Amino acid sequence: MTDLILQIKVKVKIASLKNFAEKLISGQLDRSAIISETYCEKDEPSIGISYWKVDDMEEFEKKFSLWKQFYETIEVKEVLTASEAMIGLFND
User: Fold this and answer.
1) Other C-beta atoms within 10 Å of 71: how many?
2) Residue pair 9/26 in contact by the 8 Å Cβ criterion
């Protein structure tokens, strides 16, 4: 089975920010699948992007379920490494 790498783009609910931070700091949110720093948009810091690595979408949904309550919007896209993309492009 191939691991999935997912790009997660979210918009944080500002009203939940304090509770969200407390859960993160106390370790109550599962971060084990996160493989990158979270980066936020300079012009809209409530929007952040991170990358997660999971076995399948079922694992992602399980790990991400507690995070959802803190977000207004969520976009999930499967991504490839640059080398995987290059191989795919050359083979087309």
Assistant:
1) 19
2) no
Give the integer Cα–Cα distance in Å for 54 and 66: 16
Q: pLDDT (tens digit, 9 = 90+) per residue, 30-52?
A: 999 999 999 999 999 999 999 99
List residues bridging with 78 in a β-sheet. Answer: 6
Largest CA distance in the chain: 48
What per-residue string of b and e applies to 32-54 under the rule 16 or more CB within 10 Å gives b?
ebeeeeeeeeeeeeebbbbbbeb
Chain position carrying tokens 């499967």: 78
Annotate 66-82 with DSSP letters as a single string: TTGGGEEEEEEEEE--H
What pTM was computed for the model? 0.89
